[in-house]
Amino acid sequence: MSHDALGQALMIRALAAREKAYAPYSKFHVGAALQTTTGEVFDGCNIENCSYGLTNCAERTAIFKAVSEGHAKISALAVAGDTDGPIAPCGACRQVIAEFAEKDTPVWLTNLKGDVQQTTVGVLLPGAFDASDL
Ligand SMILES: O=c1ccn([C@H]2C[C@H](O)[C@@H](CO)O2)c(=O)[nH]1
Ligand SMILES: [Zn+2]
């Protein structure tokens, strides 16, 4: 599959996962989809809680699903939300993404209008704290 086709497939999967969002408080629905280095695809949605700080973002839901199934290496990621421009992952998710991806791992950020920003994990979190700093 070409790079562009992979991005398209993951964005479609992220948009589908977004439909499952549990977001009764913010009403802001987000979906994410990733491919692992072993070729599997995992997706996730945001899951809120009445104790707001316990919310899990879509990106981390997808990553935790993959890691808990034994796939701890991400080779590509897409995120979709109903934003004006392409969605911007929060800082917490950028750090968690960095844990399981390489700096040059491609990331597609999109919205419901079809705006797309193709970036990389290293651009999303320059100067990341990582395991080599420990
Ligand atoms: O990239 C993002 C940005 C926000 N959210 C969620 C968290 C919360 O449930 C809602 C509003 O911030 O959107 C995500 O899941 N991913
Ligand atoms: Zn987040």
What report would you give on this structure?
It is built from four helices and five strands; from the N terminus they run H-E-E-H-E-H-E-E-H. It is of the alpha+beta class and 134 residues long. The chain has one domain (1-122): Cytidine Deaminase, domain 2, CATH 3.40.140.10. The chain has helices at residues 3-18, 58-68, 91-99, 121-124; strands at residues 30-36, 41-45, 74-81, 106-111, 116-120. The chain is globular, with a radius of gyration of 14 Å. Zinc ion is lined by residues 57, 59, 89-90, 92-93.
Write a concise keyword list for the protein shown above.
single chain, 134 residues, alpha+beta, Cytidine Deaminase, domain 2, five-stranded mixed beta sheet, 4 helices, 30% helix, 23% strand, binds 2'-deoxyuridine, binds zinc ion
